[in-house]
Structures are given as C-alpha cells and as structure tokens.
Amino acid sequence: MITDPEGVTHDLAVLNKGTRGAVEFASTRRPGLYVLDGPGSHRIHFVVNTDRKESELEQLPLPKIHDVAKGMNASVVSSWAEYRSLDQQRRYGQEVWQFLLAALVALVFLELFLEQLFARRKR
C-alpha cells in the first residue's frame, strides 16, 4: 500500500522483475511525502517534487516566526544577550548559590553575636 500526500491509500501489486519483486506507482504528480508500506511492516518514505515555496529566501514576518516557534515548542530571541540568558536558564536552571552564600554569612555573624552575648553572661 502507498499513502499519498493527501492521506489517500492505494493498493499496489508486487510485480516480478527477474529474481526480484517491484512496485510501480505512476500517480506521483502531486508534490509531497509518499509512504510505501511493504510486507512485514517495512515502511519506506520518499518525497516527490517538493513545493517551490520551500526554496523562497524571503524572511517570515515576526508574528509568523512566533507562531512557528510556538508550534515547535521553541523560543525566539532577538539578541545575543537574550540567547545567553535563555541558554543559561535551560542548562543550569536558576542560580541559588548567591542566596545560600548570603544565608551562610548571616549564620556566621549570628553565631559570633550569640557567642559574644553568652560569653558576657558568664563573666
């Protein structure tokens, strides 16, 4: 069976060509992806005369770029700084070491304060 770009399936017969079998499908005038399902769940994909719009070098308008990115679960950035920030967030998440360092320093000073307070009471 072969499935054309419109999703229509066509039954094909396997022809003997010498010692091998062959399948012929002549209705490939429509551009797009064709999927050939052979015996034993063997699947072959092939493309015929792709649409010329894919070769246009014109840039998409910004709203269309955002729509395409949303469909692919991607993010659009417009500067190097935005890219670096997004990349940093994706790789390492949010940095918490600064908060932990500040808490540690605060605990050290609290310990010193309490130590001096208790030392005065013993005298």
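the 2nd protein, sequnce then structure:
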Amino acid sequence: MPRVYSIEGSAVEEIALPPIFETEIRPDLIRRAVIAAQSARVQPWGADEMAGKRTSAETWGKGHGVARVRRVKGSRHPAAGRGALAPHTVGGRRAHPPRAAGVRRELINRKERRLAIRSAIAATKEKKLVESRGHAMGKVPELPVIVADELEEITKVKQVKVVLEKLGAWQDVERVAASTKIRAGSGKMRGRRYRQAVGPLIVVGKESGIRQGAGNLPGVDVVAVENLGAEVLAPGGVPGRLTVWTKSAIQKLAGGMFG
C-alpha cells in the first residue's frame, strides 16, 4: 500500500488506493475527452449574414456598354452608380465569409468522458508514463504521491516550496521555470506571449488556502477532486501528469466518484 507523507516529508501512515486507480489506461479515450473540453471553449464567430447586402443596388449594364455588375440606384447620392453587393466591389459582401453556424465542437458521451477521467487518474501512478511526459521526478519517493491534509491549509508560497522540495517534486517546478520562453509569431500580441511547460498538479479534498499558496508557482495547478477533468490530468491529451494528492482527496475518490 502507498504511504501518506507529512508536510515534513516523512511517512506517517499507509492508505489503500481506491479501485479507480486500477482502471485500464486508454490514451485514445483520454485524448478525445481533452479535445471535447477544448472545443467547448471555442467562441463561434462569423460575418453578419447581411453584411454588404444592405443596399438597393441592381444591375442595369446590359445594352449600355458597361459591366453588368449591380450598381447603387439614384443620381444625386454620392454612391450612385457605384458597384455594390458583389464580392469584388467596394463595400460588397465577402465571397466566402466564415459562418458562425458552423459546428466546431467535438462531442463525447458522458460515460466515455467519465471513463477517460478514471483512466487519466490511474495513469498518475505509472512512473513510466510520468517520465515519458518529461516530468523531472527528482527524489519523488513513490507514485502516487499522497500528502497529509495539512497541505490544503498552506497559504504561503515559500511554505509550499519547502513541502514540494521535501516530496521531491520541486525539481519539476524548476524545469517548468527554465522552459518558459517567448512565443514565436503573432501570438505575442494576442495575450499569449509566453510558452510554458506543465508542472505538478495538486489535488485536494478542500481548498482551504493552498490555491493562494501554490497558484503562482510556474506550471503548478491546484484543483479540488470534484472538479477533476481529463484536460487537467492529461494536458494535451497525454496521460501521466505528476500529481500530488492529499489524503482527503484519495478518500473522496474511494467514495465512487466518476463512476
């Protein structure tokens, strides 16, 4: 049975893992669930269906020696006689505008999504998968890493750093900090200037301050066990994220969550 570690890094007790950690690991299903979660955040956008069409233009060119393009009617209006409505005219419609009615969301069945979450949870205890994702294991004693509930009440960044150092997970945070670089391309001007790797995930039974303590550490995410999803457990659809669990989070998983 895996051991529960105190915030000082010493083993204090043993705990039985819930059956959810024995779920078959399905990378294909995990990737589908991640894509579905990402596509759900896509904001539909497109051109106004009437853009470039709000005009009285009609064609009268036949027999007049001019192009038969539709032109604005009238004689005194500044735009009178000017081409309109057609895609190649000034102020005309676009030839093939993007349509907001397009289906841009990838759907997944509820049972498949829950199975993907269970599968991603089971992957967090596989050392080969965690290492293949590029996480720096350092001196991590064993997987899954389970810590006493005192971790949930820490509100100071320096205290969280000390705990992660004693658990052997701080080396992965340093790896993330070293990997941060400026993005290439126009994304620098669109609110995503930096690219950063993904670091450890802290799963808690109750958020009592740990989000304030660990939220600003590079690459570290804090999530309550009830809010777990495939995307946070397997960023990019690749299972095996280095995860630190609190004892209460493990106990809640034993209650049959994501069944």
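The chain has two domains: 3-26+108-253, 43-104. Residues 3 and 14 are 4 Å apart (CA to CA).
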